[in-house]
Write a structure and sequence with these properties.
7-stranded mixed β-sheet; globular; Spore Coat Polysaccharide Biosynthesis Protein SpsA, Chain A; 2 domains; about 50% helix; single chain; 3-stranded mixed β-sheet; alpha/beta; 10 strands
Amino acid sequence: MKYSFIIPVFNRPEEVDELLKSLTAQTVKDFEVIIVEDGSTRTCKSVCEGYSGALDIQYFMKKNSGPGQSRNYGAEHSKGEYLIVLDSDVVLPEGYLAAVDAELAKTGADAFGGPDRAHDSFTDTQKAISYSMTSFFTTGGIRGGKKKLDKFYPRSYNMGIRRSVYLKLGGFSKMRFGEDIDFSIRIFKAGCNCRLFPDAWVWHKRRTDFRKFYRQVFNSGIARINLYKKYPESLKIVHMLPTVFTVGVTALVLTSAVGRVLMEYDSIDKWYWLCAGPWLPILLYCLLILIDSSISNRSFKVGLLSIPASFIQLFGYGCGFITAWWKRCVLKHDEFHAFDKNFYK
C-alpha cells in the first residue's frame, strides 16, 4: 500500500464525516485511513463505521495525549509507504492524492506538504481567519505559497513523510504545540529532502470564532520560543515580525493617548497631530487588509472581518512570543503553553 492517512480527532465527529466523504472521492485509491480518537467525549466511531464499505479504514480510541502522540499511535498501526498527516478539520479536493502522486513521480521527496484554502461553504469568520493565516500582509503567506523566503516546513494539517523516515526520526515529539515544526526541523537536520507540493492543497476550516483563534495563535507564539530554546538556529527574522507589529501598534496607540492628554492642558492645535497622527499607519494597514481580502474573497463583509482577524493573528502571536521570551529567556522557566483547560472549547 502506498499511502496511509493518519488523522487524530478530538470531539469533531461532524468534521470527520466531511473529511471521510472527501476521501471517498479521491481519484487515486491506493490508501488506507487511520482515525485516532484522542480521548474525545463526543466520538466519531459511528461515523467511521458508516464508511467501512467505502474506505479501508481503521478506528482507534485512546486516552488524551495531544495530537502529536496520537499521530505516532496511528503510524504504529499503518502500512503505507508514505504517511499523510491531516487535521480533522480539513476537506480534500478530489485531485489531492493525484497531485501528491504526480509530484512524487516527478521528483521524489522524503517529506512534503501543501498549502490550504477557504471553501465557499465556510462561514465569513472562518474565511477571514483563513485569510489572516495565509495572506502575505499578515506574514501568513510566507508559509504556504509557491514562493518561499526560506525552507518549507510542512504543517500537520497537510503533511506527508516517507514511512521509513518517520520511524527513523521517532515521529512527533511530546510538545503540545509546535510539534509539527519541531518534526520538520528534525527532518531537515537528518538531511532529508522536504518539498512544497503547491497543487496538493486542502480546504482548512481552522478556528470557528475569534476567541478560539486568539488562543491558537497565542500558543503559536509561545511555541516559537520553545522551539528556539531547542533549536536556536530555527528563529528567523520573519518569526519576529508579529512581535514588531504588536510593539509598534501599541507604541502608536500610547503616543496618541499622550497627545490626547496634552490637548486637555495645552493648545489643541499644538498637540492635534500627536494625537491623530499615530492612527494614520494603523488605518492605512486596515484599508490594505480590507481591499486585499475583499478582492481575494470576493466579499466586502469578509474583508471587514479580516481586519480584526489580522490584528488577532498578529497580536495573539506577538503577545505569546513576548510572554514566552520573558518566562523562558529572562526568568529561565521550563517549556510551557497556555489555555490548558479550555483550548478546544
